[in-house]
Q: What sequence folds into this?
């Protein structure tokens, strides 16, 4: 009996197993079965050769129209190289297959034969050619007639590489497919019956060796269902597991810090913020751990909502940890929180408020002394709020009583990282968890990506946020626009405002600049503008390689801005360290160099750094992308909308979907092959309900061994992907 997780050596032989591993990362029986054909040929039907483009690796079914061999112009060892040119046709178009010094190919490639050819397309005189293609007869060449049953049959074409051709893969499948009957079906019988789905073995035969085209659809329907179903089942199972944990209810005192913060705030919370706050408060009052995702566009005011939740934990005698993805952001949160709390953040000092607590910062680059005192504050319980980066997750960090974990910009962290912080709660209970993301995402995506969380959304932006206008600057085709960028920067500064310029790199490492295009590295651009277009302005540089004291100094100088005549910064040239969260309301212009190199979500985050005060923001996307190119189209669609929801749709549509169980944006090993979280919303809803039904009936899946094992494999694969990435 063969199992899903069995490796292929014993079944296919070590050589083939190795080739599949190297070509496609296929290791197990399941991996091989899930490598589905990319398309199908009908025997006798030729591939349209008019569709080929240069540099594609193609597999085509074509007929030999002519074969000639002749001495070519090149010579080796004194003899001319023999050229064999084979004209292939689909009846309308022609492509040349070329072989060097292999005249014996003429015997294989007789006129009128129909074969599968695989190779890379290159240009040839006025047409296309395949140089030294692989080929394989498909059993139709001698005009096999319909009577022998082959003529209508279908040939699967697999994603192939030079080493593993599609027919080699087909041969491996011929060995594997008969073994499939032994494999337990991952879908429960009942689910299959209700939804009219074929069994696993049947689906495999239909997708890898269909007898009719209609079978392919039947198989795909079943496999798509299975894929979405298992993913939803796994997410639900995890959710149930977590919910089964217990937590300590944390409710704020009526006259505690939450109330005191509300009194102190210079603004009123929006109705949306109040709604979300109420949801959070009710979650935190429960003996089940809160698992809530707060999504809200850049600038929607998530921080203050998080702070209220943290204060509720502190009011209840516990601590809160606030995890930020970068040092700059952690430092910024630390100062925002300290400022919002005022005297409440200084308990224990003479300035402190009795109703207060103390706030501590913990990052990886802190000196030993500072680190030790932060660790002590966390472990002793003296610090009610601990703000930090990944450093919070290291082993020596302990909390007296961790009641709440807040994770900012969740998309930067993996599920496992969050779990490792949650594990720091003492005893049997779990802390409440609030994760926040500025990339608002469609419901089905949220369900899949964050399937184990409840979702709250902040839809409106607080008053005082100004709109941001975005323009694309095609620097190479419209040089005038580029000088206007710098002129505009100067105007902003003259008007008392400040400017960000974001570069993709820290240093150019001596790489020459493109003529007519600004330098693309922080260091070079800073030197260039200081000596040229922005001469006389106060320019600062910020990037991840500066030590943390220098980073804080630069950020503070930029935050101080024109107000500080001695050390203020007008123009901050930075890498994407400023992407998230940085809040300097006086900054009104964001210039992004080589904008096409960034993802649209990043660009949206970046432009969210301006328009934070009462003056409208402007974002200029400088690019060398060609007019009409995909990259240009992406930038133009970003410029056309300021709505974070739309942006995330553009983003998802242009990005390969990552392994959604793990790190959301990682983009490799995909557990979704046939299903798209974006396009298959209905399927995801349907399968989520079906999975919930099965788990409700049989939570341990005692009578569904096939499904139980499939879920185990899914979560093992994810863990190993995670470990490989780490
Ligand atoms: P994000 O959701 O991107 O993290 P922030 O929490 O940084 O947004 O908030 C952006 C800005 O809006 C901050 O300066 C914050 O103080 C301000 N803000 C938050 N809530 C309100 C409100 N209800 N009214 C006015 N300004 C607010
Ligand atoms: Mg934020």
A:
């Amino acid at each position: 009996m063969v199992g899903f997780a069995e490796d292929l050596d014993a079944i296919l032989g070590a050589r083939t197993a190795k080739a599949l591993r190297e070509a496609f990362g296929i290791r197990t029986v399941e991996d091989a079965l899930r490598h589905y054909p990319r398309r199908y040929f009908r025997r006798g039907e030729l591939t349209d050769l008019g569709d080929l483009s240069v540099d594609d690796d193609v597999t085509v079914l074509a007929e030999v129209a002519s074969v000639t061999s002749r001495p070519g112009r090149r010579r080796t060892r004194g003899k001319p190289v023999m050229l064999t040119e084979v004209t292939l046709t689909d009846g309308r178009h022609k492509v040349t297959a070329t072989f060097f010094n292999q005249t014996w190919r003429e015997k294989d490639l007789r006129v009128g034969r129909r074969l599968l050819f695989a190779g890379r397309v290159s240009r040839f005189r006025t047409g296309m050619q395949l140089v030294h293609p692989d080929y394989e007869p498909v059993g139709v060449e001698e005009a096999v007639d319909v009577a022998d049953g082959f003529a209508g049959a279908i040939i699967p074409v697999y994603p192939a590489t030079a080493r593993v051709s599609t027919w080699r893969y087909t041969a491996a499948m011929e060995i594997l497919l008969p073994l499939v009957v032994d494999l337990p079906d991952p879908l429960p019988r009942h689910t299959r019956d209700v939804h009219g789905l074929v069994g696993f073995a049947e689906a495999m035969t239909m997708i890898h060796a269909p007898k009719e085209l209609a079978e392919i659809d039947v198989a795909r329907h079943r496999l798509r269902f299975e894929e979405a179903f298992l993913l939803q089942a796994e997410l639900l199972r995890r959710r149930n597991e977590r919910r089964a944990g217990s937590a300590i209810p944390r409710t704020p005192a009526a006259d505690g810090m939450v109330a005191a913060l509300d009194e102190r705030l210079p603004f009123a919370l929006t109705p949306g913020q109040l709604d979300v706050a109420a949801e959070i408060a009710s979650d935190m009052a429960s003996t089940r751990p809160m698992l809530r995702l707060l999504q809200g566009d850049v600038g929607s005011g998530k921080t203050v909502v998080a702070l209220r939740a943290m204060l509720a934990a502190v009011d209840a005698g516990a601590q809160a940890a606030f995890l930020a993805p970068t040092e700059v952001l952690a430092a910024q949160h630390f100062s925002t929180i300290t400022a919002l709390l005022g005297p409440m953040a200084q308990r224990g000092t003479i300035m402190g408020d009795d109703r207060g607590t103390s706030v501590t910062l913990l990052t990886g680059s802190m000196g030993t002394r500072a680190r030790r005192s932060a660790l002590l504050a966390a472990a002793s319980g003296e610090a009610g709020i601990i703000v930090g980066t990944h450093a919070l997750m290291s082993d020596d960090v302990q909390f007296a009583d961790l009641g709440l974990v807040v994770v900012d910009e969740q998309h930067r962290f993996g599920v496992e990282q969050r779990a490792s912080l949650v594990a720091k709660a003492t005893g049997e209970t779990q802390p409440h968890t609030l994760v926040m993301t500025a990339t608002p995402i469609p419901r089905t995506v949220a369900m899949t990506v964050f399937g184990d969380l409840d979702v709250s959304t902040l839809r409106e932006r607080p008053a005082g946020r100004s709109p941001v206008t975005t323009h694309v600057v095609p620097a190479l085709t419209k040089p005038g626009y580029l000088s206007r960028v710098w002129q505009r920067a100067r105007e902003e500064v003259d008007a008392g405002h400040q400017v960000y310029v974001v570069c993709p790199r820290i240093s150019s490492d001596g790489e020459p600049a493109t003529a007519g295009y600004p330098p693309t590295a922080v260091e070079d651009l800073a030197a260039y503008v200081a000596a040229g277009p922005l001469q006389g302005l106060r320019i600062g540089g910020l990037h991840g390689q500066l030590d943390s004291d220098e980073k804080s100094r630069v950020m503070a100088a930029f935050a101080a801005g024109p107000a500080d005549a001695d050390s203020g910064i007008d123009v901050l040239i930075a890498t994407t360290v400023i992407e998230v969260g940085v809040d300097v309301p006086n900054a009104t212009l964001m210039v992004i160099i080589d904008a096409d190199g960034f993802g649209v979500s990043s660009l949206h985050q970046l432009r969210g750094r301006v328009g934070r005060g009462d003056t409208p923001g402007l974002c200029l996307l400088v690019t060398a992308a060609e007019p009409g190119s995909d990259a240009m189209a992406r930038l133009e669609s970003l410029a056309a909308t300021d709505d974070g929801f739309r942006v995330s749709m553009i983003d998802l549509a242009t990005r390969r979907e990552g392994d959604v169980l793990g790190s959301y944006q990682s983009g490799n090993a995909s557990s979704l092959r046939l299903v798209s979280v974006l396009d298959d919303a209905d399927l995801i809803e349907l399968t989520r309900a079906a999975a919930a039904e099965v788990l409700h009936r049989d939570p341990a899946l005692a009578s569904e061994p096939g499904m139980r094992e499939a879920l185990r494999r899914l979560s093992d694969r994810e863990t190993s992907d995670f470990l490989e990435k780490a």
Notes: DSSP finds 23 helices and 21 strands in the chain. Residues 302-303, 408, 581 surround magnesium ion (ligand 2) (CB under 6 Å). The longest strand covers residues 57-76. The longest helix spans residues 213-244.
